[in-house]
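Contributing new records

If you add data, match the layout below exactly. Sequence lines come first and carry their own label; structure lines follow with theirs. Keep one chain per record. Anything else will be rejected by the validation script.
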Amino acid sequence: MDRVTLVWVGKGGSSTRVVSLPKAAVVGVVGGFFLFLALSAGSLLWARTASVELRGLEGTLHRLEAGRQESEEAGRALLLEKQRMEEELLEIRDLEVRIRRFLGLNEQSYDERRSHQGGMGSGDGEEGPFGGVDGELPGEDPFGGPFADTSRTLRSGLEEVVAHLEDRSAESRRIPLILPVDSDGLWVSSRYGWRGNPITGTGREFHNGVDIAGPWKAPIVAPADGEVAQVGQDRRLGIYVRLRHGPAVQTVFGHLAVAKVKAGARVQRGDVIGRMGNTGRSTGTHLHYSVRVDGAYVDPQDYIWDRPFKTLRL
């Protein structure tokens, strides 16, 4: 039989419709319907699988991006640490040169003593003390290699200085070596050398010390062992104290609010000798600090070794 008869019976059997179709047509329609269902189900399953894989891929990309950012941050932190240590090495080198100059030791330059290790770097693409070009991380460990050689060179030089000082310990206690103000919140209001008149604002005068401004009545301390040579009051310096640190070196402290020592007293490095004030010819609360060697005024900056002078902000 090559045909299929389909019969529709109406509600209540009131009407009947009969349709006769070729068997092949009926089979094709039914097969197409089931094929459509199969394809739809397959498409839905593929879409769900693709969605899961896409979310997994997005998660992987997010993790990779987070890892990249962490690596960049770690690299920047390492670079900053490298730069900080370079600055510290430069400060130590400068301090060693100043100490050697003061003690009359061999002043052979730092770079000459480590000529096989490369230069310190100038910021113009030269090799720095850690190896590598300034501003770039070297391929090797930045805290090994040349850095270790640099540290050994500095250590060797400073050990020589320390040994020299230990041999002259009593004498070195009479060398002014520390900032004579025991306080925070300090700044240099006037340096050693020629300057404009701070009172009139006209003309030039030679300033024989440094002016260190700070809090009212901040403690003023002896920068070295010695004897109080004089305590007095002057039209220019106001209340002042003069210390004698042996036959060649003297220090002067002016514009004090009050002196805490008397002439003839012995003092040790760090003892309080007065309080910061604004007496005499002064435009504000500060200490005038002078150092004299063999009767001549010298730059007090060369006698402040316990902290980098640049930390006393202008």
